[in-house]
Design goal:
The structure is a single chain. The protein contains five helices and no strands. The chain has 120 residues and is mainly α. It folds into two domains: 32 residues; 62 residues.
């Protein structure tokens, strides 16, 4: 028989962690002052009057560098358990980890050779 009382702490934590953000948004929505006008609708840039349009197109290369960083950052997280149990797992897992590291390296090398990572 499945006993639900064993999970009382989990359900309590889940309910409290769900109610606190909802209450925070509700209270801030009720207590926040509402003031609309031209000052409220203008963009603020360190006290200087904004110049030009607020919509600026970024080049795709910024996103390429961000994605390369995220790929290698996530890869590092996945390599940590392998590193901690390397002595137990053996050589076959080392080869798998090596392949796992080499696959994401091939993508940026290919993009670099094609000129996708050039700033100019």
């Amino acid at each position: 028989m499945f006993l639900l009382h064993e999970y009382d702490i989990f359900w309590t934590f889940l309910i409290i962690s769900s109610v606190i953000p909802i209450l925070a948004f509700l209270i801030s929505g009720i207590l926040a002052p509402i003031s609309e006008g031209p000052e409220k609708l203008s963009s603020y840039e360190s006290g200087i009057e904004p110049m030009g349009d607020a919509w600026v197109q970024f080049r795709i290369r910024y996103y390429m560098f961000a994605l390369v960083f995220v790929v290698f950052d996530v890869e590092t997280v996945f390599l940590y358990p392998w590193a901690m149990s390397f002595d137990v797992l053996g050589v076959s897992v080392f080869i798998e980890a090596l392949i796992f590291v080499l696959i994401p390296i091939v993508g940026p090398v290919y993009a670099w050779r094609k000129g996708a990572l050039e700033w100019s």
